[in-house]
Amino acid sequence: MAQVAIDANGVESAKKNRIQVSNTKKPLFFYVNLAKRFMQQYNEVELSALGMAIATVVTVVEILKNNGLAVEKRISTSTIDIGDETRGRSVQKAKMEIVLTKSAQFDEIMAAAAADENGGAPEHMEGE
Hints:
The chain has a domain at 18-104: 2-Layer Sandwich (Translation Initiation Factor IF3), CATH 3.30.110.20. The chain has helices at residues 28-42, 54-66, 106-117, and strands at 5-6, 12-13, 18-21, 44-50, 70-84, 89-102. It is elongated and about 55 Å long. The protein contains three helices and six strands. 31% of the residues lie in helices and 34% in strands.
């Protein structure tokens, strides 16, 4: 069975490595940790946000970059029309997409973090 990405609204995303960031659905570090997992699986991750959530996606990206885990591959901005049923017309929303790739140190940093979580012991001990 194929794996699919689930956005913060619980909706399947067309791209396996895309995270649609919301500033109300999940805490900030949910997205940071999810992006780390996606980079482990796919070597890159696409973070996407609309409107007010753009500040959240920028913060997630900066945390990953400042911790030496990610490098920006592509940043794109656009404006999209979204139907507003309450007003009976469409409204324009800003959209930002940022594609990150694993940094050269990604695997080393993640291995060190895993060792710290295990009390400094290797992840898999012989005889287990």
